Amino acid sequence: MNAPVKIAPKSNLFEWRRLDRINLVGNEMRSIWREQEKDRVGIDGEIERCRPRAGEDGAEATGRILKIQ
Q1: Residue 8 CB contacts under 8 Å (≥ 6 apart), including other chains
Q2: Is residue 5 included in any domain, yes or no?
Q3: pTM for this entry
């Protein structure tokens, strides 16, 4: 008995590359990227803006959220 073949349509491959790029951009912005479940229609994720912590290492979330589609 053969296992079913999994197929990744060309459109999924394009979407996954795009989401990987958004992840990089979010990191460059020093923000938090939260990806939604893959292969969904609608919102792909969100980026929450961060600001440097006063006098300390790291950053703190601002609560300002950009929804990405």
Answers
A1: none
A2: no
A3: 0.67
